[in-house]
Specification:
38% of the residues are buried. By secondary structure, the chain is of the alpha+beta class. It is built from four helices and 13 strands.
């Protein structure tokens, strides 16, 4: 299992090792010790979510108030998605920038997205199934969205699916009505980079509850 930090600090691509034979395939999706060695703290599992999406479905950009935020360890067990992390931490040197990882049922990579970062993905084929390991439970009152088609962020979403068919983004009503990054910042919805750093540092030294 290999970890590679993305262009956005706090986000990591995880490359897994596969063991296959004529019976099928086995792999370790998550291991606590390598995770802590790469990221600098343990992952506290509070909830596991599963979503199944048709081709073109675009979910996000989602984030939660910090503290406590919600870190996510994400993998695609069926199909394929382009998974995107967005730096929404006000004061961060990469504020407003993004990076992405292809998650699919061939390479079977994962992505870790720390507290204070925005998360989104687009499904590249019907039935794409994504599993999320979450550090905190879902709490509607502290969950927020930024519009995934915000031109100021400029995410390069795929226009062609896994099989070569054209893709049209399909958003939920809630995501379609989400504010732009600038609007979310003006409304005071975005986390501050220094507050996020202090919280994550507390995870590493054990002072964060």
């Amino acid at each position: 299992m290999e970890y590679r930090e993305l262009a956005i600090s706090g986000a990591w691509e995880i490359t897994t090792r596969h063991f296959g034979d004529d019976r099928g395939l086995f792999l370790e999706v998550f291991k606590g010790i390598p995770f802590a060695q790469a990221v600098g703290h343990d992952f506290s599992l509070a909830q596991v979510n599963c979503s199944v999406s048709a081709a073109g479905v675009l979910r996000g950009i989602h984030f939660a108030d910090v503290p406590p935020g919600q870190a996510k360890y994400v993998t695609c067990v069926k199909g394929a998605v382009v998974d995107v992390v967005v730096d929404i931490r006000v004061g961060s040197p990469t504020f407003g920038q993004w990076d992405s990882v292809l998650l699919d049922d061939a390479d079977r990579r994962g992505i870790y997205i720390a507290e204070g970062l925005g998360h989104a993905f687009m499904s590249l084929e019907d039935g794409s199934t994504v599993m999320y390991l979450c550090s905190t439970p879902y709490a509607p009152g502290r969950e927020h969205e930024v519009h995934p088609l915000d031109r100021a962020i400029g995410i390069e979403w795929p226009s062609v699916g896994r099989g070569g068919e054209p893709l049209t983004p399909r958003l939920s009503p809630k995501d379609g009505a989400a504010p732009t990054l600038a609007e979310a910042r003006a409304a005071g919805l975005l986390p501050a980079a220094d507050a996020v750093a202090a919280y994550v540092d507390g995870l590493a030294d054990g002072t964060t509850a």
